[in-house]
Amino acid sequence: MVKDMKSIRKDEHKTSNWSGGTTTQLYIYPENACYDKRDFLFRISSAKVEVEESVFTHLPGINREIMIIDGELQLEHEGYYDINLSRFDKDRFSGDWTTKSYGKVTDFNLMMNEGCDGNLEYIEVKKGSIANIELYKNEIYNNMASILYCVLGKVSIYLEESIDLCDGDLLVVITKDPINTDNISVQNKIGKDANLIISRVYF
Questions:
Q1: Which pLDDT does position 180 carry in this prediction?
Q2: Which of 86, 133, 120 shows the shortest CA–CA distance to 199?
Q3: DSSP symbols for 62-87
Q4: Angle at 137 between CA 13 and CA 61, to 5 degrees
Q5: What percent of the chain has pLDDT above 90?
Q6: What's the pTM?
Q7: DSSP string, the chain
Q8: Each residue's pLDDT tens digit, 133-172
Q9: Are 1 and 179 contacting, i.e. CB atoms less than 8 angstroms apart?
Q10: How many CB atoms lie within 10 A of CB 185?
């Protein structure tokens, strides 16, 4: 099993403005892809929604999963369903849909183009504790990306080497030809709980 690992610090992220607030690109794959060209396989971002009502960008052919980091959001997927999301709730939907949102929030987004699949999971690591996070093997796809985002707190990650993550930092692990389920060990050494989001993407 071959792994490529890299950490991306908060001050390395790119933030841009949109009509309803700001969006920060956390990671894009391949790394030379461009969001505006839609030539990415998958993309992870976090957005601040600063208006009460907005319409999601139309993204044909792209599947989306969104998780709320702060605030509450109501989503209306026209012709499908409505859903209310609170902190660390998530929803999966198609970028082909017409989606309206109501509420000011900070959210976390996973966008997946054709040729990949994935999901988001919220993980809380209590102060002074250790969590083992499974990296699930998928029988359909040859490769997987495990992207660990530190929402709040400070943790030490143990996977072949030790890497510290603080608020806004990201760890990317690309595994090629996975054979068995692997684990990441996460240790919280400080005096408050840590909040993490892991994105598992198969391609």
A1: 58
A2: 120
A3: -EEEEEEEES-EEEEETTTEEEEE-T
A4: 55
A5: 79
A6: 0.94
A7: -EEEEEEE-GGG-EEEEETTEEEEEEEEESTT--GGGT--SEEEEEEEE-SSEEEPPP-TT-EEEEEEEES-EEEEETTTEEEEE-TT-EEEEETTS-EEEES-EEEEEEEE-TT-EEEEEEEEE-TT-EEEEEE---SS-SEEEEEEEEEESEEEEEESEEEEEETT-EEEEEEES--S-EEEEEE--SSS-EEEEEEEEE-
A8: 887 666 788 899 999 999 999 999 988 788 999 999 999 9
A9: yes
A10: 14
**Six token digits for residue 41:** 């396989």
Stated length of the chain: 203
Q: Is the pLDDT of residue 105 over 70?
A: yes
132: its two tokens: 């083992």
At 174, the amino acid letter reads I
Alpha-carbon distances of 115 from 106, 156, 174, rounded to whole Å: 28, 32, 16
Tokens linked to 19: 């009509």
